[in-house]
Amino acid sequence: MLTTDSLRFAIGRWAECLPRCADELNALDGDLGDGDLGANLIRAAGRLEEAAPQLPADVGLALLRCAQAFTSVSASTYGTLLATGLMAGARLTKGREAVPWTEISVLLEAALRAMMQRGQGQLGDKTVLDAVEAARSATAGLAAPAALLDAARGAIAQACDRLRDARPRQGRARIFGDKGIGRDDPGMVALLRLVECLQPTAAP
Fold first, then answer.
1. Domain-located, residue 203
2. Per-residue pLDDT, 120
């Protein structure tokens, strides 16, 4: 079951693992954006870690606190979209202290819809939205955390491969036109790394 303790575990893993991914994400973002994606995620993880001990048992309220912590340190479009997704999940889980793992795909669908509305993006634009959709589709019906993580990681990696040679159609990346062809989208890779950090095989 997804509980606030599950969220605390995830936050701890991100705080440990993200520093190892930061240079890669900054470099990817530097090719097509501001070059600070990794740094922003590290700051967000730090703020989440500070908030973790005081998170309420209500999963929805805990997710809302996570969204608020995220927005307090990241004014980027990516940070705004992730916070929007967390708030969508918060609305569906408010009032519950345990959520079945089988609902993860439902939460991801709600997050995706909210993120698409907020960012005015579409699937196929080569953005984090494509990664969220890949994870949503792959996790439908799964009930074990390890299986959920494996499925999400594999699906997001495949989405990165599928869209690598596509031209970006959203965000700052689209300004660079053909330069984005043959390059991974930083936001998609960032979500992949966030999932990988949660896997048991991730180095401490």
1. no
2. 83
